[in-house]
Design goal:
Glutaredoxin, seven-stranded mixed beta sheet, globular, 22% strand
Length: 156
């Protein structure tokens, strides 16, 4: 299913690195940047998430909650978060339900791995409406952070 700008963001409950349930609805009243990424401990994913880490103050200053989502287990994500000193939640979509609901799942990744999240970015406003949607087919590409940041800035 392709997510369109202007539609209500699909609800989800995922587990964070401490295995706590996190619901999208718990961020109502706050803008949310969802970043789906293929796999922890890979070069482009590490670069992307460390860039967010290094710029987290700019997201906090515009009332935006960043959430990283992958199909890795909570245990893998916990180790990745610890090693990279990530300062925002990483959520495990181990069962691939949220990635599927957002249309961000590879049928086959690097030829043989099935069900890995595509690198994607979604901005969801305070009312739960999608204001930005970008799903990348090439895992080596990064989301358009200039467009993401402009969208977030326009919501305040």
């Amino acid at each position: 299913m392709k997510i369109e700008i202007g539609q209500t963001a699909p609800a989800f409950t995922l587990h964070d690195t401490e295995r706590n349930a996190v619901e999208l609805s718990s961020f109502k009243g706050k803008n949310v940047l969802l970043l789906f990424f293929p796999m922890a401990f890979t070069g482009v994913c590490t670069k992307e998430l460390c860039n967010i880490r290094d710029n987290i103050a700019s997201y906090n200053n515009i009332n935006a909650q960043v959430l990283g989502i992958s199909v890795d287990s909570p245990f893998t994500l916990a180790k990745f978060k610890e090693e990279q000193h990530l300062n925002f939640p990483l959520l495990s979509d181990f069962n691939k339900e949220t990635s599927t609901a957002y249309g961000t799942i590879y049928e086959a990744f690097i030829g043989w791995m099935k069900g890995v999240s595509k690198r994607s970015a979604f901005v969801i406003d305070k009312d739960g409406i999608v204001q930005y949607a970008e799903v990348l087919e090439n895992a080596g590409d990064l989301p358009n952070f200039e467009a993401i940041n402009n969208t977030l800035a326009s919501l305040n």
